[in-house]
Structure formats: C-alpha cells, structure tokens
Amino acid sequence: MATLHSEIAAVTDRMIERSRNGRQAYLDLIQRERDSGADRPKLGCANLAHAYAGTDEQRDKLRDGRGMNIGIVTAYNDMLSAHATYYRYPEQMKIWAMEVGATAQVAGGVPAMCDGVTQGYSGMELSLFSRDTIAMSTAVALSHRTFEGAALLGICDKIVPGLLIGALRFGHLPMLLIPGGPMHSGLANKEKARVRELYAEGKASREELLDAEIAAYHGKGTCTFYGTANSNQMMMEAMGLHIPASAFANPQGKLRQQLTRAAVHRLAELGWNGNDYRPLGRCVDEKAIVNAAIALLATGGSTNHLIHLPAIARAAGIVIDWEDFDRLSRVIPLLTRVYPNGSADVNAFEEAGGPAFVIRELLNGGLMHGDVLTVAPGGMADYGRKPAVEDDTLVWNDLPEKSGDDSIVRTLDAPFSPEGGFRILAGNLGRGCIKVSAVERERWIVEAPCRVFSDQAEVQAAFKAGELDRDVIVVCRFQGPKANGMPELHKLTPPLGVLQNRGYKVALVTDGRMSGASGKVPAAIHVTPEGVAGGPLAKLRDGDIVRLDAEAGTLEALVDAAEWESRNLAPAPPPAIGTGRELFGMMRHLADEAERGASAVLAGAGL
C-alpha cells in the first residue's frame, strides 16, 4: 500500500482539527452510553418480559442473556423494488444468529419512500425530510436498551443516510449495513433516456414511454443506474460498513444469501463482550468520512451526497464541507464510467471489477485511507477482494490486475479523467456545486440570459410552449429545504437535454437538488443561502445575464454591482399544503443550509 497522497492527508487533518471539539464530545457520549447503555441484565423483569413476549423460539436464549441480541432495523416495503428484497431477511437472520449463539429481533421499521415514484410530484417535497424521519425512527427502534448490536437493512437514497444518522447516536453498539443488491439488467439506461427525450418532444406516446420505463425497472432490487442508491452502496464499502464487496451481488442466488449470513455471523463476533469489539461510532471517524468522499469522486457518484455525507458526519461529531470535496476532487481520478456517466449499468460495473476494483486501485495508489477500523477483520484491504461461493463456502479472491472492461472501470495509470466529478461554484449568486463527470468539457462554461421560475412545473410548461428555444440559463428558485423541502428536479432533465441536443447553450441554476441520475446538462445545484432565506437567487430577473463557469468555479449574475445591491428580493410563494406537506412545517422551519446537510433533526439537536 502506497504512502497516502499529501493533499488527502491535508484535507483529513483539516477535518480533524475543525471537528476536534465536536468529535470529542461525541466519543465521550458513546463511552457514557457504553457504560450504561445496552444493559439487559440490569433491566427490570417486567421490562424484559415485554421485550421477549413476541418471540417463542428465541425466548430461552434471550432469557439467559449470554449471547448477543441483534436489533434489526428494516426499511422493508414492497413498493420499493430495492427494499422488497428484505421480505424474508428477518426470519433468515434469526436462524443465522442462532447458529453462532446469538439472537435477533426486528427492533423497528423505518419509512422508505421511492423518489422514482414521486419525481415531479408533490410527494417529492417530503423526500429529503424522510431522511430525518428515518433517523428518528431508527432512534426509536434502538431505544429499548435490549440490543448489543444492530443490523441496518436499507439501500436507497435517503434510507442509508437516515439509518446512519440515527444509528450513530447509538454509536457504542457494533453495527453493519446489509444491502440487498441491484435488479438484473433490463432496458439499457441510454435507451430509456432516449425515449424520455422523445416523449418530452411529443415524438413518443405515453404508452411507448411506459413500456420503456417498465422494461428498465422490471424486478426486485436496486435500480441499475449509478444514482444515489448505488452511490450509497459504494460509500458503505469505502467506509468499511458492509461485509466486503457485498454491494452489487444480485438479490437472487446463493452468493447474496451467503453474504447476508456472513454479515450476521460477523456482527456476533463484534459483540459487546467479545475480543473484537468494534462500535459503529469508532468505525465512522474522519478517515472513514474522507474515504466515502473519495469513493464518490472516483466513481462520479450522486450529488445528493454533498448533502448526505455532511449530515452523516455531523451525527458522529465530524465536519466535512464542500471545500473538502472540491480539494479532494482535484486529486482523485475518475475511474469508472457508469450511467449517467457512461452507458454501462451497475451490473456491468460489478462484472468488470466493481467497487472492489476501485477500492484496491485507490489503496494501492495512496489515494484512500487504509488504516480505518472496519467491520471486516482485515480492514480496508478486505474491500479490495471479490466474494464467491465455492463448495457451499463463502470465500474472497484477489482481483485480476486488469479491469474486466476498461470502458467501464480503469486502473490508476489510465483513468477516464485525472480529476473527480465535482466542482464548487461561488459568486454573487451564492455558493453551490456542480457534477461535471457526465458533462462534456465544452459545456462547463455557459453564459446566457436567464429565465426565472419558482416551480419546476412552470419550467416544463415554458418548454412545451417553445419559450426556451434559445441559449438560456433556467433558474428554478425557492426549492431549498426551508422553502419546500428541497425536492429533486429530475423531471427537468429531459426537456433541458432536448434543448441542449438542439444546439443551444443550456444550464440549470437552483437552490434545489437534482437526481443522482443527473447527467449531461450543466447544473448549479444546492445554491446557498437559498432564495426563501434571503439568498441572492431571489434578486434575479428574467433576462439577467448569468455565467456558470465550472472551470473557474464561479456562479455570477453579470449585473451592475450598484443595481444588484439595490434590488429587492422577490417574495417566495407560500408553503404548499396537501400530500401531508403541512405536517413537515417544523422540519422546513428548523432545516439548516445544504452545505451542513439540510437537516432539521441535527440542527434541532444542536449538532
């Protein structure tokens, strides 16, 4: 393993110094919880009787109190393809726990909504705050003080960050995440995108579009593009919180079952009274957070993690900001091309080498911390090997030196780009970020008159009316967490892509989010301060010249400084009601800025 790159060391040191007080307070907390927390022998008899009443086959084992009791926190529902796979997991995990003298109980369930279902509709305004709801639900599940460890069952966009935020407040417990794997490949992602653009132009029928979408999303498992859900899985590998290389084994088959069985067995080994105690709060340290950011950059992962990773870090007393991402992006090469950054899906990525290949390359090149406390016994090196089932036994094998397909995954000596996929933008319009890994270099700079909207439906209507057929920077403001919960604006991708295909210079500027599937259209997103909180996007007027420059890292309204200073802020529309959005008013009120994680629960907790 090579010497760590000096810039990665410098960014890590910056984080450690900035986080010093908060991290120490966190470590003190989990030590106090360790001293007084999971103490089943100290609980009252009535308390224990209530805890054991729901089980028959495990009751005697629970009563003797000598084995680890694993709390299962599950995001199962059968409306999400990725989480439908968890249906049988708890009953299987109970059997596998008993094999090693442990027990397991479903501690609780957490909500898991699908952004793919709510994209472009009112339910998407609950999406980001579902992460905070999941964090609180995880805390409720683990609050019974009857568990010596926990297994977190979740995969998709807000679910993994929410589970971790909640679980980290119980960081004295050993925990790991158990993935379910991606669905098998269906209609190619590029073909799906092509039909979407045809539909946006009126050249494909609704029936043709529905056929294409169902052919793409056709079975149980995670969606196969490299969006937020699959970026989650890459990050959990890089943080050492999975059984190694378990992210992208498909749901069906012996390998997936054996990986889940191994996860239960390993969790029992990390136990409260064992010789290999590895609490979650010690595993998730500054180096693990840096590793997660590096893995994201090296693979061109989802922009949503510029919000989620800071929130996860805060729950462990750590501060990471966008400058850290930007500095890391300058030295981390892009090693993968997976849709939307290429044509391959995650199944092809896995076949070509997958996360294990990327992690091995980064470790060997001194571009990732190798000295991280992981749930795997051999540390980060274990995450650079691939699992297989041989004679009904789970084994891990070394990877070939070369990629299985260098159009998808490459070695450090021949990256797709010498830099990672993100840049920070700053100027008189605020501070935001842009994902450039899928944007052609000649489109990194766009200067054009802007057209200002306060709702994504208005953008779609203007597109259909032909009002955007020109060089244009579309501004969609009042989309931040305080305004309406910061929905993803993925429905804008097809029309803006059509305009770009027609030869126009096009970009999006917003205080909202884009999907993890965002791609070829340059988009300045997460702009902070947001418009509803007095941010400068509220000063823009139709026709103002805006310059987005990802080369220089600037986002500017080219308006005379005196005039700009004198302008009044446009009023924000009132909060919408319906679809339960009114129930989340408290979260909108408490939410902090995007760079800190856009979290209400962390802000409300003073973290």
From TrEMBL:
SUPFAM superfamilies: IlvD/EDD N-terminal domain-like, LeuD/IlvD-like. Residues 69-380 form the Dihydroxy-acid/6-phosphogluconate dehydratase N-terminal domain. This is Phosphogluconate dehydratase. GO terms for cellular component: cytosol. Residues 408-598 form the Dihydroxy-acid/6-phosphogluconate dehydratase C-terminal domain. The keyword Transmembrane does not apply. The keyword Nucleus does not apply. Pathway: Carbohydrate metabolism; Entner-Doudoroff pathway. Belongs to the IlvD/Edd family. It catalyses: 6-phospho-D-gluconate = 2-dehydro-3-deoxy-6-phospho-D-gluconate + H2O. The gene is edd. [4Fe-4S] cluster binds at residues 156, 223. Keywords: 4Fe-4S, Carbohydrate metabolism, Gluconate utilization, Iron, Iron-sulfur, Lyase, Metal-binding. GO terms for molecular function: 4 iron, 4 sulfur cluster binding; metal ion binding; phosphogluconate dehydratase activity. Catalyzes the dehydration of 6-phospho-D-gluconate to 2-dehydro-3-deoxy-6-phospho-D-gluconate. Its cofactor is [4Fe-4S] cluster. Its EC number is 4.2.1.12. Binds 1 [4Fe-4S] cluster. NCBIfam families: edd. GO terms for biological process: D-gluconate metabolic process; Entner-Doudoroff pathway through 6-phosphogluconate.
